[in-house]
Design a protein that fits this description.
By secondary structure, this protein is of the alpha/beta class. It contains 12 helices and 11 strands. It has 2 domains: about 170 residues, Rossmann fold; about 180 residues, Dehydroquinate synthase-like - alpha domain (Dehydroquinate synthase-like, alpha domain, Up-down Bundle), CATH 1.20.1090.10. Helix 2 crosses helix 3 and helix 9 packs across helix 12.
């Protein structure tokens, strides 16, 4: 298929390199209304835009008309908002929409929304006609700094989160900073959880920068916001380049707090009562407490983790029972025949994978947040 990205007139903030090729991440104040400027040679090409009830307002920003004026065929589909959209039934709904509207191998899907929209759209792209192009346009902070980058796509099942999916890279990630201006504070805070994650697992100086700049981020100061997103995308791109399909253990480090957090989400029933970022924030505190129990970081380090989580307006406790959380963790996709594999902190800014951890210590760490 012919390339359709206009790279000459647009400067990528970060470039992601994988075995299958490279793709750009653009981070600009305003992208969605001028999307057509980032594409070329699109006459006759079919673009299918997937969004949800929260992001369908962007459909009226004029970019569909711009694409159509260049000869593209543009159609859109709106999913319900929320984690429950990442399901077999919604996946089937989306694929049937594509086939009914004559999607072809040279079609391109556009994910316009947060992590849920990006994950299910990417999975449809990976599986439709054995693979078609797709572009990520993340509109939440969480999606901009994490889920839109790296090619993890998928849906949830009754047995756990993201258990059905594929590694499938987008052709580009387009980050529109202005799309965050209408994001509810709770959703913005959920995204801050992933920003903090990058600092804790791999860059102590970034943690120090966050401690100094978190208020500016909440005020959405453009230069500060752009730098935080660029830094997270740069860190993720470096990890994906080393371990695209999570086979060597390097990419698994990005799951700091996620084994605990996914268990909390599972117990909550993916109904929106606990957002992904909120669950991960609690999970990172549990991971910090366990790292301390295992003798790797100090009590002062744990306090520092708790302080940055608190400053980011994120929860540190859950109402679920410690044993129930531990039981739900057993279905984690990182588990193997030896048992759970947990990402813990050797020091602040340096994480590693640990297995064969005593159940009593895990339960103790969970109980400090339950």
């Amino acid at each position: 298929m012919a390339p359709f990205l206009n790279r000459e007139n647009n400067q990528a903030a970060v470039t992601v390199t994988t075995k299958g090729g490279t793709y750009p991440i653009y981070i600009e104040d305003r992208i969605i209304p001028v999307l057509a400027q980032y594409l070329q040679d699109i006459e006759g090409r079919h673009f299918f835009i997937f969004c949800d009830e929260n992001t369908k307002r962007f459909l009226d920003s004029g970019f569909r008309q711009q694409l159509s004026s260049k000869g593209a065929v543009v159609k859109s589909h709106v999913f319900p908002a929320g984690e429950e959209t990442k399901s077999f039934s919604r996946y089937e709904e989306g694929v049937n929409f594509l086939l009914k509207n004559n999607a072809r191998r040279d079609s391109c899907l556009i994910a316009l929304g947060g992590g849920v929209v990006g994950d299910i759209t990417g999975f449809m792209a990976a599986t439709l006609l054995r693979g078609v192009d797709f572009i990520q346009i993340p509109t939440t902070l969480l999606a901009q700094v994490d889920s839109s980058v790296g090619g993890k796509t998928g849906i949830n099942t009754e047995f756990g989160k993201n258990l059905v999916g594929a590694f499938y890279q987008p052709k580009a990630v387009l980050v529109d900073l202005k799309s965050l201006s209408s994001l509810p504070e709770r959703e913005f805070a959920a995204g801050m959880s992933e920003v903090i994650k990058y600092a804790l697992l791999g860059d102590i100086k970034f943690l120090e920068w966050l401690e100094d700049n978190i208020d500016a981020l909440y005020n959405q100061e453009v230069s500060t916001l752009r730098e935080a997103i660029r830094k997270c995308c740069e860190m993720k791109a470096a990890v994906v380049a080393k371990d695209e399909k999570e086979t060597s253990g390097v990419r698994a480090l990005l799951n700091l707090g996620h084994t605990f957090g996914h268990a909390i989400e599972k117990l909550a029933g993916y109904n929106g009562s606990v957002l992904h970022g909120e669950a991960i924030a609690i999970g990172m505190v549990m991971a910090a407490e366990l790292s301390h129990i295992e003798g790797m970081i100090s009590a002062e380090d744990v306090k520092r983790v708790r302080d940055i989580i608190k400053k980011a307006r994120l929860p540190q406790k859950t109402d679920f029972n410690s044993e129930d959380i531990y039981s739900a963790m057993q279905g984690d996709k990182k588990a193997d025949r030896k048992g759970l594999n947990l990402i813990l902190l050797k020091t602040l800014g340096d994480a590693a994978i640990f297995s064969n951890i005593d159940k009593k210590n895990i339960i103790k760490a969970i109980s400090l947040c339950a």
